[in-house]
Structure formats: structure tokens, C-alpha cells
């Protein structure tokens, strides 16, 4: 009975740490995937003068969309279309970036793009970008609820993400 009690106590102490570690790994992988897409978009912009599928791509990535085909033909072997939690990655390219929450049409042009993961729960948290304070959207990963926050990259710059550790 004593051995079982000790085992249960150890189990209860370890499980939360393991769960948080798994979520941090998914967060890190999602950041890397979005960075990969952003770097490919920036390379495409250097070559073509506008974002891939500029004005066309305005929502969740799909396997055979114009956007993913462009990136896979020119720059990436495979373009990730889901974040590490299994939720869609959203991309707003060119003028379609003005449709993203918090962006005004005056802020975006043909070279702009927004890449978004809505975090662990896949639901938009309603984050609004403040251009006067570009890193005000960075957050700590202090609790399980923090993994539900949005991850947002605007034209290669992070405006919503966990703070680097």
C-alpha cells in the first residue's frame, strides 16, 4: 500500500510536467513551421516582387491551393498546412492581408502576408495588432491556457508569439 501511494504521488508530480513539455514542443514546432513558410514567402517576394498568390490566398492553407503550389514548386518540398496541434495554418497574402483582424487596408500591399496559427484550441483569440508597440503581442507560456493563444507572423516579423526563452 505504501509503495502504491508513493507511485501515485510520483505519477501526479510527473504527469503535469510531461504534458507541459509536449505542449511546448508543439509550440516550438509551430513557430518553426510558420518561420519556414515566411522565409519561403520572402524569397518569392525577392524574385517576383509580390507575395505568393497575392490577393488570392485569404484563409486556411489547403494541399493543392495556388499558394501551396507556388511554394512547393519553387522553394519548399512540402508546405505545412496544419500547425503541430493539427489545426489549419491560415495565410492572408497581398491585399487579402487587409481582411485579417486588426489590419487596415492602408497597412498592407502586394508584398505583405500574414501567417497565423490559432494555437492549441484552433480558435482566434481576437488579438489586435498595435503598430506603435510591435512586440506587445509577445506572451509568456506560464499556463496551459497560454498554448491557446494565437501565433502571428506579418511579412517575416512576429507580432504574436511566445517570448523566446
Helical proportion, percent range: 25-40%
Share in β-strands: 15-25%
The H-and-E topology, N to C, reads as HEHEEEEE
Count of individual domains: 1
Low-confidence stretches: none
Tally of strands: 6
Query: How many H/I helices?
Result: 2
Q: Structural class, from helix and strand content? A: alpha+beta
Q: What does the main sheet amount to?
A: 6 strands, mixed
Q: From the alpha-carbon coordinates, what is the Rg to the nearest angstrom?
A: 19 Å
Distance N to C terminus: 42 Å
Rounded mean pLDDT is 89
Strand order, main sheet: write it out. 1-2-3-5-6-4
User: What would the principal axes of the Cα set say about the shape?
Assistant: elongated
Describe this entry's structure for a reader:
It is a single chain. Strands 1-2-3-5-6-4 form a six-stranded mixed beta sheet, with helices on one face. The chain has helices at 2-48, 66-74; strands at residues 58-60, 89-93, 113-117, 138-139, 151-154, 157-162. Strand 5 (151-154) and strand 6 (157-162) form a beta hairpin. It is built from two helices and six strands, in the order H-E-H-E-E-E-E-E. With 165 residues, the protein is of the alpha+beta class. Helices cover 34% and strands 15% of the residues. The protein is elongated.
